[in-house]
Amino acid sequence: MPTSTPSSAFPLSPKQLEVLEFIRAFIREHHSPPTRGEIAEGLGLKNRQGIDQHLRALETKGTIELISGISRGIRLCEPAVQSISAGEDHTLPLLGRIAAGSPILATGNVEDRLHVDPNLFKPRADFLLRVRGDSMRDADILDRDLLAVHRTNQARNGQIVVARLGEEATVKYYRRQGSTVRLEPANPDFKPIELDLHSKELTIEGLAVGVVRRELARSR
């Protein structure tokens, strides 16, 4: 699922976004960049070589600069650094369960506001949705993750959408042929949802544009 900063034409993978978010949160708390060991420990990763690969990818995509010969040689580049600048408000509303019949961003749906820069995602994120269940596990979207969502009522086949069916909102792959829509999970333990738009109403609330991992959300 692609994500990127506005300064880069190259998308960030969910894992790269996770590493970048950890770096930003660490700098915000400690006022200095983390070491590679601290990144690995903070994200529960044993493969230090994998951390180096993610850092090099983030540098290539213009979100960080790596300074050789320094243990904490990581510098955030614009616009990633903007979210930790004093006095700037880079937040997104966090939605839990969505009340039936209410607008997606109605006050009653908003649990909190988190310090996540909306411009870190492409297209720009409008809200975060707390994921419930493992139906999108194989798309690296896990239970209790925070899904960054770009608000739109349009979707193309193969995109991951937030769709509202009656009183429930669901996150699934979107497939449409004529008046038939198929909402497909990314987990073989779950069955797809099929509906005929002539007889059932479906509302597309937005497109998934990134994931904030559970560990990062708890650290905020």
Description:
Strand 7 and strand 8 form a beta hairpin. The two termini are 23 Å apart. With 220 residues, the protein is an alpha+beta fold. The protein has a 9-stranded mixed beta sheet with strand order 4-3-5-6-11-7-8-9-10. It has 2 domains: 14-84, Orthogonal Bundle (Arc Repressor Mutant, subunit A); 94-219, Umud Fragment, subunit A (Ribbon). Helix 1 crosses helix 3 (48-60). The protein has helices at residues 14-30, 36-43, 48-60, 214-219; strands at 64-66, 74-76, 92-95, 110-114, 127-130, 146-151, 160-165, 168-177, 180-184, 193-196, 203-212.
Quick structural gist:
The chain is an alpha+beta fold and 220 residues long.
Keywords, please?
disordered N terminus, Arc Repressor Mutant, subunit A, Umud Fragment, subunit A, alpha+beta, 20% helix, 220 residues, 2 domains, nine-stranded mixed sheet, single chain, two-stranded antiparallel sheet
- By secondary-structure content and strand pairing, the structural class works out as alpha+beta
Number of helices: 4
Anisotropy-based shape? elongated
Give, in order, the helices and strands: HHHEEEEEEEEEEEH
Number of strands: 11
The tally of domains stands at 2
Q: Kindly, what is the distance between the CA atoms of the first and last residues, rounded to a whole number of angstroms? A: 23 Å
The main sheet comes to: 9 strands, mixed
Query: Uncertain regions: pLDDT < 50 for 5+ in a row?
Result: 1-9, 80-88, 216-220
Instruction: Tell me the CATH superfamily of the largest domain.
Output: Umud Fragment, subunit A
Q: From the alpha-carbon coordinates, what is the Rg to the nearest angstrom?
A: 18 Å
